[in-house]
Design goal:
137 residues, alpha+beta
Length: 137
């Protein structure tokens, strides 16, 4: 199944701006992560977006928002997470450094110990959201 399946993203509003490969590489170095290929494609082609995926709302942040949020809230040595999206209701979705794991974490307590796994990888995270199988907090 193509990641940009029209059914999955039919109610999604992608942004109209794009990033370059070098902007994404610089961000990866700064954040200490490697973006999953599917998220990388979204950042290259659309630089985020928001909308419904299945019964869930997802706000995929722009590259600038990911970096800004990380610098303002997450840039401590013991933190292993890089938030990249939210559900619009106080929960963030984050990449776990050194892993393909996606974790959910309350935005009012951004410590790793309060996060929970909600997907093994980004593609599965989106597909689980669409099918209603997303592991919730």
């Amino acid at each position: 199944m193509d990641f940009f399946d029209k059914d999955i993203f039919k109610d999604f509003n992608f942004q109209e701006e794009q990033n370059t490969e070098s902007q994404i590489c610089r961000a990866e170095l700064e954040l200490g992560i490697k973006f999953p290929e599917e998220l990388r494609k979204i950042l290259l082609l659309y630089n985020g977006g928001s909308g419904e995926i299945g019964d869930y709302y997802l706000d995929l942040w722009s590259l600038e928002d990911i970096i800004d949020f990380y610098q303002e809230n997450m840039e401590v040595e013991e933190n292993n997470l890089v938030p990249f999206a939210s559900d619009g209701c106080g929960m963030a979705f984050a990449l776990k450094k050194g892993s393909s794991e996606i974790r959910i974490i309350p935005m009012d307590s951004l410590e790793y110990k309060y996060s929970k796994v909600c997907g093994n990888n980004f593609n599965k995270f989106v597909h689980d959201m669409y099918s209603g199988d997303l592991l919730e907090y």
